[in-house]
Amino acid sequence: MTEPAVVARLAQDVTSGLEPGRLADFYQDLHRHPELSFQEHRTAAKLALRLRAAGFEVTEGVARTGVVGVLVNGDGPVVWLRGDMDALPVREATGLPYASTVDGLMHACGHDLHVTWLGAAAESLAAAREAWSGTLVVVGQPAEEAGGGAAAMVADGVHTRFPRPDVLFGQHAAPGLAGFYPHTPGLTLSASDDVDVVVHGVGGHGSRPESTVDPVVTAAYVVTRLQTVVAREIAAREPVVLTVGSFHAGTSSNIIPAEARLTLNVRTQDTRVRERVLAAIGRVVEGECAAAGCPVPPEITVHPGCPNTVNDAALDGEIAAVHRELFGEHTVFDFGQALGSEDFSLLAPAGVPYDFWYVTSTPAPLWEAAPGEELREKFEGVPGNHSPLFAPDLSVLVPGVRTLVSAALSRLTG
Ligand code: ZN
Ligand code: ZN
Fold it and tell me: Which of the residues 69, 165, 185, 193 has the least number of beta carbons within 10 Å of its own beta carbon?
């Protein structure tokens, strides 16, 4: 790889023409018009338009709403840059002048920033193509939030229809005082799985519970007993989260319903731990249903979600060094492993190294007003991803383009 300082200087040159006002217009427009997973039609069209104008060969409709732009520019490695495009069913409460215009829908995870960064990085690199050699592939991914977007792109032939990556890069907006670029070598994000549970009881009149098997009570026992899985069955050193995110049963106070439905989310970092947690969920649900005398066994459906995101440590070290040169030694540090999840890594074919880092985006006044002295305390006090108050600072627009451009250049030069 070319010296980090040289790459950083080149990235600075390549992005010197970035216009913050133009970036802000593009970003605010996306923020006003959020779209749910696999419905990112407008967002995808805007990205495709920019890529085409910059000289990329663009394919739309990959995995329904995905966009792939390819720029072949001489011999050299194939570098993929990925940004996800979808928003969330969250009602925005930021009060921003460019807040969402769609009721109940919001870019609360910063994917509007990701698309803005990606489009501008693609433009910058295309405009400076005499400065590098290789193939640049820009991937606008649908449906990261609902899950399945990256997998759908792979199923739709993203690895065979387009130049196969030698390396894959991605980044995520994160809470924390704007202007930091956390990098974690190795495992950075955790595996996530969803589990659906249906408890089958026997319905009847609310006044005659003796003639029913009450699925509300049974499911309530399931919920409380599930709290012992992490606490009592998994070693304290293993990071695990088990959350019951929804509980639906019944229609009226005087009717005992016939069934109850639960949805669970499981975050783990180790395959054996994951298997043990999933097995424990099965045992607890079946055990509680048997104890209640349910006439039919419960239905338990596991929906495998994202795998762990494990950065190639050497690659991450190199990109972190470039980002230090760009933004200053103190701006890059290791966040540590998170129990959040991403399907980003699925876009890397087996054995292909990837790196996924973060761009902190909390506005300085908000950060300063957050309680606490230490980073971690303050971190908990500012709106994070998926919060209706998540409002990245516009000062991150240009740096988030530079992080991507410099990562790409580190592979496409020398
Ligand atoms: Zn998210
Ligand atoms: Zn996200």
Answer: 185
The CA 248 to ligand 1 mean position distance, Å, reads 24
Measured from the alpha carbon of residue 90, the closest ligand is: 1
Domain with CATH 3.30.70.360 in the chain: 194-306
Residue list, CB under 5 A from ion ligand 1: 109
Burial class (CB in 10 A: 0-12, 13-18, 19+), 360: buried
DSSP H stretches of helix in 36-104: 41-53
So what's the architecture of 194-306 in CATH? 2-Layer Sandwich (3.30)
pLDDT of residue 367: 94
Contact 260, 203 (CB under 8 A): no
pLDDT in tens, 264-298: 999 999 999 999 999 999 999 999 999 999 999 99
Quick one: tokens of 280?
Answer: 């424990």
Span 131-157, pLDDT tens digits: 999 999 999 999 999 879 999 999 999
The CATH number of the structural domain formed by 4-190+308-412 is 3.40.630.10
